[in-house]
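Review form for a predicted model. The reviewer records the input and the model, then writes brief findings.
Reviewer: anonymous (R2)
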Amino acid sequence: MENAFECTLIKFTASDKMKLDGILIGRNKKTCVIYLHGMNGNFYKSNIPLELSKSNKFSVFSINTRGHDVISTIKTKNNKKSVLAGTGAEVFTNAKYDIEGAIKTIASLGFDRIFLAGHSTGCQKITYYASIKKDKRISGIILFAPADDLSITKKEGSRFENRILKARNLIKHNEGDTPMKEFGFFTPKRFLSAYYFKSIEANIFYYNGQLKLFSSIKLPILAIFGSKEEYRDRKVSKYLSILENKSQSKYFSSVIIKNAMHSFYNHEFELRKNVEKWLEVI
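Model under review:
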């Protein structure tokens, strides 16, 4: 069949030996986009990677990070140890191991053009990796809805401040590793990682800040927002203008998809077409 997909379920190993899952979809054998889900997501939950896979210009490797779903467990390569994970319990900086393992897997299959794409918190993860690793195997990064979690959550006012104080106090008393309902089933440590102004994760796309990690990336960058993005504190055009001004990339491009919301639901086709157009000039 002309439009049939080639799909392969792949168990891969993060570079710290943790076991993860993903699916490789597509027919292109040269170029691959590694797709990272956002908070509470997983490799099969979103329509985005499936739509991207309809392109004949690249294949897609949609992966679970150790932050997949709300709460989960992951095992070491030899199955001797399970670790509490999922969005609510992951250590954000460990994403570098997940991404590194995915890149190694895809490179071993013969792909010589590898792009990282992230949706929502996946944007923070690929930006973090690209900024600290300077991995020459990466040809560029694609940001789908790189929203500002810190600014949005700060709008809660005193409730937000009280939760920050409580989380810090729990950590101080060695009680920071248990997911709690009052933190949205995050552990106190994970809550501070996502929303505390001194954390790495919260600052990656804190648009009132310096965006230091993002600014250090010289790879080609494509950033896409929907015009009806619901997780914002200003017009998305303002976000993209800030990114363009901060970027050191010679190939920074940005797109606003009309009427699309954070998930890009029912606008995945436009998302794919814009990615294809960008890849033609990279």
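Findings: The first strand starts at residue 7 and ends at 13.
Further findings: The chain has two domains: 7-148+205-279, 150-203.
Recommendation: see findings above.
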